[in-house]
Amino acid sequence: MVGGKPRLKYQCVEVIAPASGCQAARSLKGTRLLSAEAPRLPLATCDHPANCKCIYRHFADRRQGPRRENENAMLPVESKATERRNWRSRRDSDYK
């Protein structure tokens, strides 16, 4: 892309419906959809398409919140599993 912002691979949107919005838009509350796959507004099943007040909220990424257990506290998490790896070297010269 020349002379513009690079297109983000996982750019997404969320449909924001007012309290008086249709059931179809309110059912999408909290759902992030890839921008390329998002439905057009007003939605096809909108109860009041002539005066629809629904809008999109844009996000750079569709992921929400911390994705890994240790990102919550930012401390390394110790595994409760027993160590099963064999730490012996495979070289014969290490044992002479």
Give a quick summary of the entry.
By secondary structure, the protein is mainly beta. It has one helix and three strands.
Order of helices and strands: EHEE
Helix/strand structural class? mainly beta
Q: Distance N terminus to C terminus?
A: 61 Å
Largest beta sheet: what is the strand line-up?
2-1-3
Discrete helix count = 1
Strand content: 5-15%
The level of helicity is under 10%
Rounded radius of gyration (Å): 25 Å
Count of DSSP strands: 3
Q: What coarse outline follows from CA principal-axis ratios?
A: elongated
The residue-averaged pLDDT reads: 78
- Largest β sheet strand count, sense and barrel closure: 3 strands, antiparallel
Low-confidence runs? none
Question: What does this protein look like?
Answer:
This protein is mainly beta. The protein has a domain at 9-63. It has one helix at residues 23-26; strands at 12-16, 33-34, 55-59. A 3-stranded antiparallel sheet has the order 2-1-3, with no helix packed on it. The longest helix is centred in the first third of the chain and has 4 residues, at 23-26. The chain is elongated. The termini are far apart.
Features:
96 residues; mainly beta; 3-stranded antiparallel sheet; 4% helix; elongated; 1 helix
